[in-house]
Design a protein that fits this description.
The protein is α/β, with parallel strands linked by helices and 123 residues long. The chain has one domain (5-116): Alpha/Beta hydrolase fold, catalytic domain (Rossmann fold), CATH 3.40.50.1820. The chain is 24% helix and 17% strand. It has a three-stranded parallel β-sheet. It starts with 14 loop residues before the first strand and ends in a 7-residue tail after the last helix. InterPro entries: AB_hydrolase_fold, DUF915_hydro-like.
């Protein structure tokens, strides 16, 4: 997105929600940086300054969703912080937090409705 959005002047994005995105691939390290992360980081200045980003991590055991390590999702902060208008990281735990379950997880569906679709949810 950060490399190609400027080539599409008719496209405007103001909100982005990523779910279990492996910004640092399968690395569990808090210090090692993969080539994919380095590229995302290199081009981060191409992100729209008006963008609001929600990065959702699911965890079965506070380290992984069974596929993507939590630390890899957490690396999103290095890409988005101080580059976009707002960056929020949300961690979802409990039932149905395995990687393949996340798109159907009730909490994540509620987050999509609330933050992307701007629906007011009953409390």
């Amino acid at each position: 997105m950060e490399r190609y959005l400027k080539d599409s002047p008719k496209v405007h994005i103001d909100r982005l929600m990523t779910i279990a995105s492996p910004y640092n691939m399968e690395s569990t390290s808090t210090t090692a940086k993969t080539s994919m992360f380095k590229e995302l980081y290199q081009y981060r200045s191409g992100l729209p300054r008006s963008l609001t980003v929600y990065s959702i991590a699911g965890t079965e055991n506070y380290t992984s969703d069974g596929t993507v390590p939590y630390n890899s999702v957490n690396y999103g902060k290095y890409i988005f912080q101080d580059q976009v208008k707002h960056f929020t990281e949300i961690t979802v735990t409990g039932a149905n937090t395995a990687h393949s379950d996340l798109p159907q997880n009730n909490k994540i569906v509620s987050l999509i409705r609330q933050y992307l679709m701007a629906e007011k949810l009953a409390k």
